[in-house]
């Protein structure tokens, strides 16, 4: 813990990648509970809807992030994903189907791009901690959610930055990496997270209601069901 000249503790800064979804919101709440001064970063990357950015703003304000930065990065020009191109979002898939292969909702190198931008902001503001809500259990098979990937990115972060070269190493925090969706929800509720602020759906209706059938909606439904609580944004 760093201390001010008068001896009072200064909270360490942490950049938190915030999509407005269930996992990233819980990661932000955990960072706050651990005493970090949080700086939330979200991305307008050409995704098929901006509902999640509105959710991220609500979450950042409610959880009192010190700042909330929205970065524009055009991944739609690259395409190759159902989230950034005119491709159909899969609906009604079983858990076996979700875990069988990398789905078309995978956005090429998305977490690498987002972590790199989060790293840049962290270095600029003097933060050594970066939180990301990746999960290697209840997820849709994305390769950039695995522990091996996070460990590799941390090495890159410390090799390729001025701060890292000077010995001020970065730490990538993945508090949800080994948790099931139900465990994540229980942890968030324990910390007072209001999940009605969040958004998870890949393909919401015009009125922002979740479709209830995409992989993200189904995993969210499974998590709340197994946690034994009602999803506050459940489709009625």
Keywords:
five-stranded parallel sheet, Rossmann fold, alpha/beta, 236 residues, 7 strands, 36% helix
How would you sum up this structure, described in words?
The protein has 236 residues and is α/β, with parallel strands linked by helices. The chain has a single domain (2-227), classed as 3-Layer(aba) Sandwich (Rossmann fold). The chain has helices at 22-33, 51-62, 95-100, 110-125, 147-159, 162-165, 181-190, 215-227, and strands spanning 2-3, 9-10, 13-17, 37-44, 67-72, 129-131, 171-173. The strands form two sheets. A five-stranded parallel beta sheet has the order 5-4-3-6-7, with helices on both faces. Strands 1-2 form a two-stranded antiparallel ribbon. Helix 7 (181-190) crosses helix 8 (215-227). The longest helix is centred in the middle third of the chain and has 16 residues, at 110-125. The mean pLDDT is 94.
């Amino acid at each position: 813990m760093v201390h001010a000249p008068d001896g009072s503790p200064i909270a360490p800064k942490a950049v938190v990648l915030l999509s407005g979804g269930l996992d990233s919101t819980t990661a932000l709440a955990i960072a706050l509970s651990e005493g970090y001064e949080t700086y939330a970063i979200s991305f307008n990357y050409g995704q098929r809807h901006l509902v999640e950015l509105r959710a991220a703003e609500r979450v950042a304000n409610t959880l009192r992030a010190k700042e909330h930065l929205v970065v524009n990065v055009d991944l739609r020009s690259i395409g190759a994903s159902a989230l950034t191109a005119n491709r159909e979002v899969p609906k009604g898939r079983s858990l076996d189907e979700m875990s069988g292969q990398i789905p078309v909702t995978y956005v090429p190198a998305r977490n690498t791009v987002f972590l790199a931008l989060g790293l840049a902001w962290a270095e600029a503001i003097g933060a050594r901690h970066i939180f990301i809500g990746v999960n290697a259990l209840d997820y849709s098979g994305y390769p950039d959610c695995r522990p091996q990937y996070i460990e590799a990115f941390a090495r890159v972060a410390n090799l390729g930055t001025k701060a890292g070269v000077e010995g001020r190493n970065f730490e990538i925090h993945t508090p949800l990496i080994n948790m099931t969706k139900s465990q994540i929800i229980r942890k968030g509720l324990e910390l007072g997270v209001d999940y009605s602020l969040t958004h998870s759906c890949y393909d919401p209706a015009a009125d922002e209601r979740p479709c209830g059938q995409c992989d993200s909606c189904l995993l969210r439904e499974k998590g709340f069901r197994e946690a034994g609580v009602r999803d506050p944004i459940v489709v009625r």
